[in-house]
Design a protein that fits this description.
Blueprint lengths: L8 H9 L4 E9 L6 E8 L7 H9 L10 E5 L15
Parallel strand pairs: 2-3
Antiparallel strand pairs: 1-2
């Protein structure tokens, strides 16, 4: 829960992955227990200019306002462990 709302991180990931230029996403809740924020790590196609404002607009048509991430981090690729799993600590 964040600010009293039940947040489904998987639903946020699914909606971001439905964007035609996004091919990998990791969403988590960061911060202290009283001040948590949703953060989305996004890997998108090269040569495409995506920004946080455009992604917020895209998600606002698909998700309730309280489920829209406060922060978007654009990455070239998600960090992986030696086993090929997502390295959430990195």
């Amino acid at each position: 829960k964040i600010r009293g709302y039940r947040i489904e991180l998987g639903e946020i990931e699914a909606q971001l992955l439905s964007h035609k230029y996004i091919h990998d996403v990791y969403v988590n809740a960061r911060g202290s227990a009283s001040e948590k924020h949703i953060c989305a790590y996004v890997v998108h196609d090269e040569g495409v200019a995506l920004n946080a404002q455009g992604l917020r607009r895209y998600l606002s048509q698909r998700l309730p306002v309280y489920m829209i991430p406060a922060y978007f981090v654009m990455l070239e690729q998600l960090p992986l462990t030696a086993n090929g799993k997502l390295d959430t600590k990195a």
